[in-house]
Amino acid sequence: MSAQWDWQHEGLCRTRSPELFFHPDGERGAVKRAREERATALCHACPVMEQCRAHALGVPEPYGVWGGLTEEEREQILSAADVRSVG
Predict the structure, then answer these.
(1) Model confidence, pTM
(2) Residue 32: which of 64, 58, 60, 76 has the closest Cα?
């Protein structure tokens, strides 16, 4: 069972503070966008970005940047998938 999570040991995020990936209460606007841009840039250089993204969409993870996607981007992807499965 733990083998399915082994990819997490290779994530570049393990070398950074969680605050880069998870917004503090009340963060908005340009400050939030700048933090998310830094986080997603790190994700795009990460060797396990695809596994992380698949996990985040599969669970689904409600908070933070995962697999190079923000909370809002994941929500859009999952909403679009729901619409296609219903329609």
Answers:
(1) 0.87
(2) 64
